[in-house]
Amino acid sequence: MSWKIKNYLQTIRDAEEGARTFPPGLRHPVAFVYPNVYHLGMSNLGLHILYQLINARGDSACERFFLPEKQMQQEYIKSRTPLQSIETGRPLADFAVIFVMLSFEMDYDNLLTVLDLGNIKLRAAERNEKEPLVIIGGPCATFNPEPLAQVADAFVIGEGEETVQKILDTIYAGESKRVTLENLAQLDGVYVPKFYEAEYTDDGKFAALKVKEGSNAPAVIRRQWVREIDNYPHTTQILTSGTEFEDMYIVEVARGCGRHCRFCMAGYCFRKPRPRRLENILADIAKRPKRTKKVGLMGAAVSDHPQMAEITAYLNENKIPFSVASMRADMLTKQLADALAASGLRTMTVAPEAGSERMRAAINKGITEQHVYNSIELAAAAGMRHIKLYYMIGLPGEEDIDIEETVQMILRIRAKMDALGSKGDLIISVNGFVPKPFTPYQWAPLCNVRTLKKRFKMLTDGLKKSKHIKLITESLKETVIQAVLARGDRRMGEMLLEAHTTGENLKAVLKKHGLDAEKMAEQELDIEQPLPWQHLDMGVTMDYLKKELERSRQGKFTPMCFDNCQRCGVCKK
To answer: Smallest Cα–Cα separation from 382: which of 410, 346, 425, 418?
Structure first.
């Protein structure tokens, strides 16, 4: 092994607290891959939860792998060293099972790089009996696994706490790979792509995904979700200074969101909302490691926890610094603002998502400009200097006038901050809307790229003369690729593999095959046409998504989830 790699891994290990290693030969080695750099991967709470669960089995030893930084990738290649685990330096190819946590479309190529560095064949069909099983889970695997169907032996559809245990039991039964895959396909929430084949129309449109003849795999794979989340770990396992959240002890306070924002994949694929019990949250905070610098309260809708006031009061009373993900502007209270400020928070983050009242109604955001003003007043009164706002542009039905209204809203917010004596920065983060499967906007097009460029320029020009306003925008090239991958079928997977193998970018490979990435992303799908992800069942009915799309067009409000609600279909199953 290269001494640079050896020192690199040892430096990581020395900075960690809470990692587990076991004597070789006593447990089944299980690889866990996060296909991005360590700094980002170790900030993912899902990795920590599954790491704990796998190690708690008693028969398994979980070891982590990440995408090395560019310079370290070159060191692996130059020294001909196969990718090593953080825990023991064991090569990736030595593991019988490789779990992958896939959260973002832009990590698809990163995964292929990790497999290459680990000497793992990229195509599942080319891996023989003795080579590892690659099993992909996470948000991207849940809402549309098809672009990586050639790579994965299996996908975990939905939340993994219960499904991963069943997968390991099945693999450890010791059957041949073929029999193991057949048995995995019978597990709820496991999709084994080799037992299905895609069909296309004569003009090249996706027509269906059907079970292959002779296979007994199910025609529909149902998303799995944990009904009793308090039965499972929900905190950081490994503390380290080498992450985005330095020495932060993250606690999941709730899972899922019931707000019905029509653009949000997480709100549909991880429904229904499930707050954790207060006593369990407080007990976990009390057990945090001594080196913890701050407690991070995590969840898709943290401020919706019914006992958020009690949680933050406990943290303040015990002088425990903490932070939260972005707050809903209509849920911020004086007590919460004061608690956050007392904990050292200097930037209040809220997400209006759209600047015009019309567009906020269309996406079902459910907050008003007055809610944002109230948040600013509470933040300023508590001593928080900076405000950060998240917006999207290119939402379905958006017009130039909505961008003009966004500019005016931002200027009014800046004026409000000035009037309150708040001289900090107003940070505006703007991303292009990307249509995602299993949302009411899954049929919607990506806004025309020329239009997006024009609207970004409208924002830039409208704000450039104002002091203390910082505008942050996302690369439109990445927005287009995200949209193409999010709604791609198996043919997109072939393009992805070709791009990775040849070193070309995906857009160039598509062009070589007569395809235009922008036109593909900007395509509006027919509401009745077959979709590449329709063999998956999120619980939310297609009829409900269609109704929500129509309600969006009409600007009608859909109330949030409530007990015994039977609207979308999730709670019927």
So the answer is: 346
Q: What gap in Å lies between CA 376 and CA 51, rounded to an integer?
A: 39
pLDDT the model gives residue 214: 95
Check: CB of residue 310 under 8 Å from CB of residue 292.
Answer: no
Tokens of 524: 């509006």
Do 445 and 523 form a contact (C-beta atoms < 8 A)?
Answer: yes
| Cα 194 → chain centroid | 25
- What confidence category does residue 326 fall into, taking pLDDT thresholds of 50, 70 and 90? confident
**Whole-number Cα distances in Å, 211 to 191, 216, 223, 238, 561:** 11, 8, 18, 41, 35
pLDDT at 245: 85
- Please name the amino acid found at residue 414: R
pTM of the model: 0.97
C-alpha pair distances (Å), 53 with each of 56, 112, 134, 253, 290 = 5, 26, 19, 18, 23
Q: List, as one string, the DSSP characters of 104-166.
A: -GGGHHHHHHHHHHTT--SSGGG--TTSPEEEEESHHHHH--GGGTTT-SEEE-B--HHHHHH
- According to the model, what pLDDT value does residue 247 have? 94
First vs last Cα of the chain: how many Å apart? 51
The answer on pLDDT for 573 being more than 70 is no
Element (H, E) at 407: helix 400-419
pLDDT at 467 > cutoff 90: no
Q: For residue 99, what is the enclosing H or E element?
A: strand 97-101
| Total count of residues recorded for the chain | 573
Quick one: which H or E segment has residue 62?
strand 60-66
| Rounded-to-integer distance, Cα 377 and Cα 371, Å | 10
- Paired with 32 in beta bridges are 64, 99
Nearest-Å Rg of the Cα atoms of the chain is: 24
Query: Looking at residues 195-205, what average pLDDT do you find?
Result: 95
Q: Which two tokens stand for residue 246?
A: 């330095």
Tokens of 537: 């069942």
* 506 membership: H or E segment, kind and range: helix 506-512
Reported as a single tens digit per residue, the pLDDT across 336-372 is 999 999 999 999 999 999 999 999 999 999 999 999 9
Rounded distance, CA 88 to CA 6, Å?
A: 10
pLDDT tens digits, one per residue of 356-365: 999 999 999 9
Query: Can you tell me the distance from the alpha carbon of 183 to that of 171, in angstroms, rounded to the nearest whole number?
Result: 9
Mean pLDDT for the chain overall: 96
